[in-house]
Design brief:
Layout lengths: L1 E5 L3 E6 L26 E3 L2 E8 L5 E7 L14 E6 L6 E13 L2 H7 L11 E9 L2 E9 L1 E3 L6 E14 L21 E7 L2 E7 H6 L14 E3 L18 E2 L2 E4 L11 E6 L4 E5 L4 E5 L7 E6 L1
Length: 304
Amino acid sequence: MRIFSFKSVIPVLCLTALVSPVFGQEAIRSTEAVRGGLDLNRRELRWTPPITTQFSETETRSFLWFDGASYDAHKDFLPLFNERRQLPSGSTSATAQILNPVYEPLDQASLAVLGASIALLGPDVSVNVNVSTFRREPFANLSILPLRKNPASGIVEKLVSFTLDIHGNSNGQRIALTSQFASSSILATGTWYRIGVTTTGVYKIDYNFLKNLGIDMTSLDPRKLRIYGNGHGQLPYSNSGQHQDDLKEYAITVQGESDGVFDPADALLFYGTSPNSWNYDAAHQHYHHSVHNYSDTTFLFSEY
């Protein structure tokens, strides 16, 4: 198998997207070492004034912040409290609740930064928990959005301290993961060319592009052209997330393929996608921009 890499295909029509960097870190926060009967499950969030990050010479954005906060584009970059806790062996699910919460009103500077994202807040803080397995041991992965609209006054409040109560549950059955895989990769044999695209749109591969690759155009049958790839953005971090096995064939159209010869006026058209994506959240009527953390290019493969 040989692979050649190129990024200079000709864009016909590109749909550009604004780039909003995603940043954050997992935070496992607790109070200091507990002795003398203090509550091991008590948590404190140390809020600070909003922070401002400069992404370029012309673009800046402000964020709400507490020590250890992380961010998720799907939650409009609101600050999240994350904690990971080991569960009793055999746990397949978990429940989590906040006890004895203490709230404080959000200050005016923070309200200004919050802006339209206030529509994402409910009368209680949002608590989400899922279970993952590490070295055959179950762990609860907790995420809390520590903001709410007070149900009585309507004032936006931040969570400053609380007691965390997490319990693992078992249904008495072991989870069996089964997967089916292709017997071999489509790239296992042949000479392949790698094509890179950075924005979403229709792309054109013409006669001169292929000729400059060193391909013998007199023997190239355009009816046999194929393009393969995945093109669905960044893979999920979780092993339980959806992953594609091997490369999938892309839909293409070849202008002038009927005579079996790739003439100078012929061209191949395909739809390429950016590694970044926009997704509409119908529940909150918001678009979320997901930015690939590791690549600015989507790569496709073709054999000529």
